[in-house]
Write a sequence for this structure.
């Protein structure tokens, strides 16, 4: 699923809505579109355990049933974990930060630790990336709230018997967005870290940022005393 | 003493995914190599007795929606002891990485090496996929030449329309099947199953012999081709006992008994067609003389309105698609097309499911049909194909559509809310002159003029789309000379000037065309013989890939390869393309029987030159094309008089049934 682009996912999701019989609302106009808004989609090539979206409905449905029906209609690998009735406010506004795990096969954890130290001590780490506006240079350091080399407590997904360093990151949602590959570019800038094989990136969580620097479930706000009815 | 190999020999059927996955972040659109489509089937390798790899030799985005492959995939996988997986052409970026890292051509379903399968079936809609076949064979680790293969290699079987003349790829494939595939794959499966159960007696040779004896599987190695001193074919004869002199096409007669696809493949990746497609009939007897599909798929066999309705209902429920394509060679010709469209429009009213008829004849389109197609709000594109610009050339090609029909039809579309229609024509037709092509401009001008008058609006457009004519085997034009690319290009330039001569009208007319060069190469491959195989190989060795894509196709590469290879045989590129054949010449595909009587084809070619039109045998007496008696088939058309009943509305969420 990590190779699914956002467009691919959106198409698959809309078909799943039809298969599941979800009474989705459509926009008006010559080519009506279903009312779905996606919050901060993971980049192509990145796996994710925490993606969020909002659906506008024509009629009220039970969130638990909606979750079960959509989950059954989606391809294996795309799972719907939870659904709540939105209580108002934009979902996108509640996405303040993302938690990522980056597996770097064939990288020595000590080398990675040294690179991370260099990164954290730097005031600013300028990296370059192609954006829709063209090639842009921006700081990859300030948005990084936490960056830690973690011990491989379990075998990294699907690759066995190869040494592998693991990095965990908490990055604040900023513009232009700082993505995991930008942080990796930053490590290349400060410590010439060049992973010999493509790293595997997974988004573990995203949501509101607590004062302690942890990430809270963005749906929490809707869970207690949520108003009933679509929006 | 042998040195023990450091890498263990891969286990047959083992997934290559762990080696493939690290390459995918480095290529464009990696999702196309991942599989995992809704409707995809992954079976236990060890539990299967016969294993098929099915290929559509183009990019995933083009190959995945292919009906033929989807149907065979489903038919084969329904058998408990048979496993079928799919593979598509990989783009040059991944090909390069696969070669560097020793990753073989793989299936997208379970990422198994294609070489591990028993049968490797390749479906050719167009000859321009031949170089991609060579890439796949080579990446799979299978010897390029059929003659060099061993019992460890799969049997490579070609199918699809291009397989009606597989001679240019005779060196590379082990067998070819002509005609409808669903029963043919079952018969081949049964032969492979039995041969394996017996312990594979006689090896590959015996298996191929058993296939050849069915008289409907062509095995090129069992036929010798002799040539005359002037380069023409002297004869094609079997070189083994019990191999038939002619191989016959397959015809699936009762389409209601084969309601596939039931579970259409729904990909995550974007593909060229995002719709549930159902064939509403096969075959066509309109008799357009350029049309190979119409000639080789006779007779007309309709699928009944009730089966179509049921397939659409189940297909949409399964897939979640919101467009239904009613496919055939001329969809408005179905005897119950009106009831079918109104019934479907009624059933899906208010659901944003839209209907499309990809092939619609100008004279069979009417207001009712237009209204049903647009009832659910969204108007899918409308394309009409007069094919020829002048009345004269339309008589030559037997496309019996008048200018008045066209204008009336297009105006109907405009007044029903379509703002844009596409008109398709061909250039380079036999006997064609500049004047025939220039009349396309008059026709387009009149379409816009009439459309503006009828709608009172200037907001209507038409696109004139021109394809190059390619003479195809098993058609009355199989003897025809092709026009030179320079002549075609000059005509198209004149046409463009003529369209824009009136600036007000010209602004509303889009003009799209392909230049003549790719058509000439398609012509070489369509009517080529076994000697053309060396040209294909040379082009492939020089980097030829994805020849159906203008950004990858290189005319010069083909011209150079032909110039290098063909003189040794005393022939050249022109000999295959711009040369007219005479009545008695042995054509490379004469031993392959499409059911059409060669004498009838010749007569129709002569009728064409005298601009004599041939009626459709669905409505007028049989004109003796030969197919029905030769194949023991008959026309199967309705009307059945049945109607589609309203669907019971299913409201509410579809919850998974507890396991």
């Amino acid at each position: 699923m990590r190779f699914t682009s956002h467009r691919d996912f959106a198409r698959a999701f809309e078909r799943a809505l039809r298969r599941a019989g979800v009474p989705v609302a459509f926009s008006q106009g010559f080519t009506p579109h279903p009312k779905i808004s996606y919050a901060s989609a993971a980049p192509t090539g990145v796996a994710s355990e925490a993606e969020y979206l909002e659906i506008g409905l024509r009629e009220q449905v039970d969130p638990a049933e909606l979750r079960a029906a959509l989950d059954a209609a989606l391809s294996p690998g795309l799972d719907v974990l939870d659904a709540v009735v939105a209580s108002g406010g934009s979902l996108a506004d509640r996405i303040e930060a993302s938690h990522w795990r980056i597996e770097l096969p064939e990288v020595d954890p000590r080398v990675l630790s040294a690179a991370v130290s260099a990164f954290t001590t730097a005031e600013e780490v300028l990296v370059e990336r192609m954006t829709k506006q063209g090639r842009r240079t921006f700081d990859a350091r300030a948005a990084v709230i936490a960056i830690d080399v973690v011990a491989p407590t379990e075998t990294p997904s699907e690759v066995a018997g190869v040494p592998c360093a693991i990095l965990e990151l908490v990055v604040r949602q900023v513009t232009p967005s700082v993505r995991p590959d930008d942080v990796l570019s930053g490590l290349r800038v400060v410590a010439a870290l060049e992973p010999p094989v493509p790293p595997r990136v997974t988004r573990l969580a995203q949501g509101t940022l607590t004062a302690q620097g942890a990430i809270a479930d963005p749906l929490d706000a809707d869970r207690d005393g949520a108003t009933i009815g679509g929006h | 003493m042998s040195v023990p190999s450091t890498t263990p020999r891969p286990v047959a059927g083992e997934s290559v995914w762990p080696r493939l996955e690290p390459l995918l972040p480095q290529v464009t659109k990696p999702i196309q190599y991942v599989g995992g489509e809704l409707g995809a089937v992954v079976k236990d390798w060890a539990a299967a007795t016969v294993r098929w790899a099915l290929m559509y030799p183009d990019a995933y985005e083009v190959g995945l929606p292919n009906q033929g492959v989807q149907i065979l995939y489903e038919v084969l996988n329904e058998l408990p002891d048979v496993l079928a997986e799919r593979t598509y052409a990989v783009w040059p970026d991944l090909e390069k990485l696969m070669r560097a890292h020793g990753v073989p051509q793989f299936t997208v379903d379970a990422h198994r090496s294609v070489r591990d399968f028993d049968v490797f079936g390749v479906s050719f809609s167009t000859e321009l996929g031949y170089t991609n076949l060579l890439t796949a064979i080579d990446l799979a680790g299978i010897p390029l030449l059929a003659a060099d293969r061993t019992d460890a290699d799969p049997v490579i079987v070609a199918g699809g329309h291009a397989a009606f003349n597989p001679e240019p790829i005779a060196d590379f494939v082990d067998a070819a099947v002509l005609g409808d595939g669903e029963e043919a794959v079952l018969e081949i499966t049964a032969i492979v199953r039995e041969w394996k159960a017996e312990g594979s007696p006689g090896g590959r040779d015996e298996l191929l012999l058993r296939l050849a004896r069915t008289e409907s599987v062509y095995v090129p190695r069992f036929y010798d081709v002799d040539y005359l001193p002037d380069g023409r074919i002297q004869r094609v004869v079997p070189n083994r006992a019990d191999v038939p002199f002619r191989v016959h096409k397959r015809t699936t007669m009762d389409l209601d008994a084969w309601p596939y696809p039931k579970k259409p493949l729904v990909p995550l990746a974007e593909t060229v067609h995002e719709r549930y497609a159902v064939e509403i009939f096969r075959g066509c007897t309109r008799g357009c003389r350029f049309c190979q599909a119409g000639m080789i798929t006779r007779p007309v066999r309709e699928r009944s309105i009730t089966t179509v309705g049921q397939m659409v209902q189940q297909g949409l429920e399964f897939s979640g698609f919101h467009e239904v394509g009613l496919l055939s060679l001329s969809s408005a010709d179905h005897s119950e097309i009106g009831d079918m469209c109104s019934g479907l429009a009624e059933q899906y009213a208010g659901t944003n499911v839209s209907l499309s008829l990809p092939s619609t004849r100008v004279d069979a389109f009417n207001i009712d049909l237009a209204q049903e197609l647009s009832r659910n709000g969204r108007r899918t594109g409308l394309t009409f194909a007069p094919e020829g610009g002048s009345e004269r050339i339309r008589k030559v090609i037997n496309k019996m559509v008048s200018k008045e029909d066209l204008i009336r039809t297009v105006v109907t579309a405009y007044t029903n809310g379509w703002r844009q229609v596409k008109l398709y024509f061909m250039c380079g037709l036999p006997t064609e002159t500049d004047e025939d092509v220039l009349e396309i401009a008059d026709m387009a001008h009149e379409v816009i003029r009439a459309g503006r008058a009828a709608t009172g609006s200037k907001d209507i457009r038409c696109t004139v789309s021109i394809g190059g004519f390619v003479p195809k085997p098993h058609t009355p034009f199989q003897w025809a000379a092709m026009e030179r690319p320079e002549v075609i290009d000059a005509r198209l330039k004149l046409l463009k000037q003529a369209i824009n001569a009136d600036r007000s009208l010209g602004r509303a007319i889009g003009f799209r065309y392909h230049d003549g060069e790719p058509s000439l190469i398609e012509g070489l491959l369509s009517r080529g013989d076994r000697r053309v195989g060396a040209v294909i190989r040379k082009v492939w060795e020089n980097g030829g890939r994805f020849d159906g894509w203008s950004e990858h196709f290189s005319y010069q590469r083909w011209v150079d390869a032909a110039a290098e290879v063909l003189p040794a045989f005393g022939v050249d590129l022109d000999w295959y393309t711009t040369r007219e054949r005479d009545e008695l010449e042995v054509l490379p595909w004469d031993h392959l029987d499409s059911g059409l009587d060669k004498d009838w084809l010749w007569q129709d070619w002569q009728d064409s030159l005298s601009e004599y039109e041939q009626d459709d045998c669905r409505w007028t007496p049989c004109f003796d094309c030969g197919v029905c008696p030769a194949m023991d088939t008959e026309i199967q058309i309705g009307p059945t008089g049945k109607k589609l009943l309203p669907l019971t509305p299913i409201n509410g969420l579809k919850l998974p049934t507890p396991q």
Notes: The two ends of chain A are 30 Å apart (CA to CA). Residues 6-93 of chain A form one domain.
